């Protein structure tokens, strides 16, 4: 723990990420108001003791909606990164092990998927299946598959050339066991770093898709959707855009710093410098 928290990036990222996660967990059991409860008498109310972050055009409490929106962002991050890791690592290990034609086919498929960014994929998918948070997560998750496949392939190919792999083969250990027991554990560190960074990107992508109307649909709270609704009232109620924008910035900054801190901690070169 001293090694991790001795890194400033990790410490700041951990604090910000923990704040976002705790806000999301708290919203599951308590919010100041019902996030979807409308109050016509308090429309566009300024931040006050009654509504610390003010209200929106329907009189809904912005603090409550920001808290509930954190749950939505974390779920999107977990699901999309989960899709990317599960399929990407599998394809990357196969590519590194078989090589030749199999490796070439998987890498060219990755290049094809890279040609369709997450937002463009979401537009394509939602135009066919309709806008929803499920389709948005599917689009972002598909975009992550080649990210993790390429990383897994690159690291696994170096592991397969190591002496302890040759020693395991000499002892008669089968290839599947070697992959599970020796290769996979040695690529977990870069995968963890990449997953943390892509988690932040997923939050930003979901906010962008919701802002475009392709992600979370009303009346469910989403930071991106809140920004979309706030653009009409920027001069009357700027707090409608400021607070969800700050939430997105803190979440993305926190997980990015956390990923940078993990990378610095796991990198032997950085450890020797410290």
Could you give the topology of this structure?
Elements: H1 2-5, H2 8-29, H3 62-98, H4 100-114, H5 118-129, H6 133-160, H7 163-170, H8 175-186, H9 188-211, H10 223-230, H11 239-266, H12 268-273
Instruction: Return Rg in Å.
Output: 22 Å
- What's the CATH topology name? MetI-like fold
Number of domains: 1
Stretches with pLDDT under 50, minimum 5 residues: none
Estimate percent helicity: over 70%
Strand pairing plus helix content: what structural class?
mainly alpha
Average the pLDDT over all residues and give the rounded result.
89
β-strand percent reads: under 5%
Largest sheet: none
Quickly describe the structure.
The protein has helices at residues 2-5, 8-29, 62-98, 100-114, 118-129, 133-160, 163-170, 175-186, 188-211, 223-230, 239-266, 268-273.
């Amino acid at each position: 723990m001293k090694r991790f928290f001795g890194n400033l990036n990790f410490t700041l990222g951990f604090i910000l990420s923990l704040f976002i996660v705790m806000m999301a967990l708290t919203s599951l059991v308590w919010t100041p108001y019902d996030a979807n409860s409308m109050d016509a008498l308090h429309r566009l109310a300024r931040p006050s003791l009654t509504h610390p972050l003010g209200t929106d055009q329907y009189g809904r409490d912005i603090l409550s909606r920001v808290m509930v929106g954190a749950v939505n962002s974390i779920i999107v991050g977990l699901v999309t990164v989960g899709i990317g890791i599960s399929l990407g690592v599998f394809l990357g290990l196969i590519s590194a092990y078989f090589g030749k034609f199999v490796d070439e086919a998987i890498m060219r498929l990755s290049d094809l998927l890279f040609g369709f960014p997450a937002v463009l994929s979401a537009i394509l998918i939602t135009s066919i299946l309709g806008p929803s948070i499920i389709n948005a997560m599917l689009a972002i998750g598909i975009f992550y598959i080649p990210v993790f496949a390429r990383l897994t392939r690159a690291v696994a190919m170096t592991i397969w050339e190591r002496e302890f792999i040759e020693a395991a083969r000499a002892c008669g250990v089968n290839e599947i066991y070697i992959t599970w027991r020796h290769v996979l554990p040695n690529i977990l560190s870069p995968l963890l770093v990449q997953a943390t960074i892509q988690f932040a990107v997923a939050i930003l992508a979901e906010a962008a898709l919701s802002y475009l109307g392709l992600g979370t649909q009303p009346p469910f709270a989403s930071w991106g959707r809140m920004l979309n609704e706030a653009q009409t009232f920027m001069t009357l109620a700027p707090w409608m855009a400021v607070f969800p924008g700050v939430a997105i910035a803190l979440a993305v900054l926190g997980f990015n710093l956390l990923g940078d801190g993990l990378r610095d901690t796991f990198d032997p070169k950085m450890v020797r410098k410290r």
